[in-house]
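task queued by scheduler; priority normal; single chain, no ligands, no partner chains; default sampling; output format set to structure tokens
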Amino acid sequence: MTAVSGQRLAVSNPAVAEDGAEDDLRGLFGQSTAVYASLAGPAHLVESANPAFFAAIGGGRTRTGVAIVDLIPELSAQGFHALLEQVYRTGEPSTGRDLRVVLGTGAHAREAFFDLACEPRRGAEGTVTGIRVIGVETTQVKHAQQLMAEHRALLEQIARQAPLTEVLDGMARCIEDLSPQEVLVSVLIADADGRHLRHGAAPSLPDFYNEAIDGIATGEGVGSCGKAAHRRQPVIVTDIVTDPFWSDFRDLAGRAGLAACWSTPILARDGGLLGTFAMYHRTPRVPQDADLALARVFAGTAALAIECHHSERAQQIAEARAKSAHDDLVEAVRAEQKLRAEAEQRAAAAAELAARMRTAAAAQAASPHPERCQLGGTPGCTAPAEIKVADPWGDAAWGCTSHVEEALINVRSVFIANQDLGGLAAYRNR
């Protein structure tokens, strides 16, 4: 009975119940991956919080006993402190899904997402004494969803044969947007001989840097990308300043503000070199497993895009050659048809000429045989007509031996010099 009465007394005292609940919640959330913080009073002092909460806000901010506005000041402009004020004032809990916040400032700022619940803490007489913040960081889930959506969009671009530069540029921007820390992406494409690397995409690198490395050779000592292309293996350079492979490009990287470079070779299905995929950083940095996995995923996507581009290009070249061969064949057929038509015209003209000659010969054969030579010209020749000569124009004449011999020489010469002179007819009337 006494135990029961004691139990009822404990339950009937709200302040005692509140303190016990806080102890239980601290115990439950102590090692949980869910973020938990207990805020006290209208100033929202951080009374207690679990390691997951401090890890989420980052920056080594692990203090308690300070107002949350002083612990995480960047959230003031993002509406979080106004939300706490509302919960404290109204006593009504507030929940949200995929709430986006930016934690940290400057180069250390990061985008984060949370499923969050803010519940009022009540003391004696039911008054609000503080707020409990309980939630789960969904940043990785959100980024994974974005990654899958972007990756699917890239695959759709590849499937519809979008220009390679458009695909690679979109891929680079996607990775830069999804990475929790600043990263600058570069894609270099290998020449056909695999000995040089050409600019493919690097939307955030300065132009002078892209121009300087466009066409670099593959091999040892040629930065991260040249070495990765040569070895066909990833090359991780965590500090460009101290790495011997960057000796020739160290000053260039310094001018571009680059301190680390992780390069992954882009390989074809048969192992051939297609290019390199590089992730640059402003500060020396060692990659995490997630970074390497991201590089492998997009190196594979880049390989698919480049192979499809090569295949499409090869098909275009083959089609162009086939069209050129077809055009050449058409032109040859046209030339052959033209030559045939000209040959037929010449054959017809020759047949017509032969017919005319036969007609003229028949007419001449029917004419009487003259007694005197017809080839003596205007003065005339009294020698007997002994030999008959003819020309291709159908003209014929009888002449003496000497004038026939002269005509055979001179008529032929006249014919070669000028066809319009009429052959024997002109000779006879000379």
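post-processing summary
- The chain is about 50% helix and 20% strand.
- Residues 289-366 form the longest helix (78 residues).
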